[in-house]
Amino acid sequence: FVAKISENAMTALSLVYPVQNFISAAAIGFGVGINALVSLYLGAGNKKKAGNAAGQGLFCCLVHGVVLAVLSLLVMPHFLNMFTGDEDVKALAIRYASIAFSFAPVIMVGLFFEKLFQAVGRMKVAMTSLLCGCIANIILDPLMIFGIGIFPAMGITGAAIATGIGQVVSLTVYLLMYVGKPFPVKFTRQDLKPNGEILKKLYGIGIPAILNIALPSFLITALNGILAAASGSYVLVLGIYYKLQTFLYLPANGIIQGMRPLIGYNYGAGETKRVHRLFADTLYLSLGIMLFGTVFCQLFPDSLIALFSSNPETIHAGGMALRIISLGFLVSSVSITSSGALEGLGKGTPSLIISLCRYTIIIIPTAFILSRIFGASGIWYAFGITEFATAVIAYMTYLRATIKN
User: Fold this and answer.
1) What is the Cα–Cα distance from 242 to 107, expressed in whole angstroms?
2) What φ, ψ does residue 44 adopt, rounded to 5°?
3) Would you say residue 232 has pLDDT above 60?
4) Whole-Å CA distances, 216 to 40, 163, 325, 348, 359
5) Does position 404 have pLDDT exceeding 60, yes or no?
6) What's the angle, vertex CA 230, arms to CA 229 and CA 236, rounded to 5?
7) How far apart are the first and last CA of the chain?
8) Phi, psi of 302 (to 5 degrees)
9) Euclidean distance between CA atoms 282 and 342, whole angstroms
10) Cα–Cα–Cα angle for 255, 207, 402, nearest 5°?
11) Whole-model pTM?
């Protein structure tokens, strides 16, 4: 819808996106900490501490939302100057950001409730809330952007308001479900007061989780720099690959998201055998998804690339890349399952170590060295090498964390 306003409006939205994405990453990452801690306390049968953790989480989310809203609005003009000198683009970006970022506290509190509902196993509520917000946003976008019915034409301002309203709708659904139905974790005004012990645990899990979410963006930037030295078409191929791989990794991550509260609950209850069973079941499901992806990429690589490009050279190069990279899909299941399990156990730092191996420590130097020997294909082989090495590290880290405790 924004692209239909003007090319400048779409450019403005693209420039605002990284900062907007960082706000979401901060909310989701800290929410993982809330999710893990509440699940652990519930599993240990300590509802009072679960309520304390929830209250502290809500307090932190409110503070984070206000701080990020203010900082984002202050930094936006300087951020835009780094990428464009077009005054019209900057004006549109500022107009959109000034509204979108003011909803940061709503985003933070909404994601707090999402993780809280997930922690007690009420995934359908989280899904319903997200759907309501998205549908409201999609319906309001054209009405407010182009001025349909009772709405005036507001352009990019309308897009920002529609997005904010969608976020308010999601939060409203959570509040109605929390207040209107019995809920196993209740927090009081007293629980909102800062508690050093719980805050340390929340940030101990939350900060690594935030970094986990940010690392893939860092990897893409680094690989783009290496690939650009060879050919601009390879940068396009990498971009297409990352669009395609989300169709595999998002379903796998959805299963892992379902595992986190279950594994945390059983770990808190001292049910180590169930923890290992949950890990194994999640791993098998992830392996099934990755096996499907591997077979599909091996059989139809050119057809998949052709969904994004009609250039024969790009299709050929992309098809070769998919065949090579997909060889590491299966073994990557071990890393993503281990990382998710460790987050569910409340062990954010070991989980971060796994992600650092996958996204920086191993893959970037390996890709750089192999690119100097084999050209662009060396970078594609670096994916598989990294996945095999990280899988060994990840499984050993998971075993050490569970056996030690």
Assistant:
1) 26
2) -80, 0
3) no
4) 28, 25, 16, 17, 6
5) no
6) 95
7) 52
8) -65, -40
9) 13
10) 55
11) 0.67
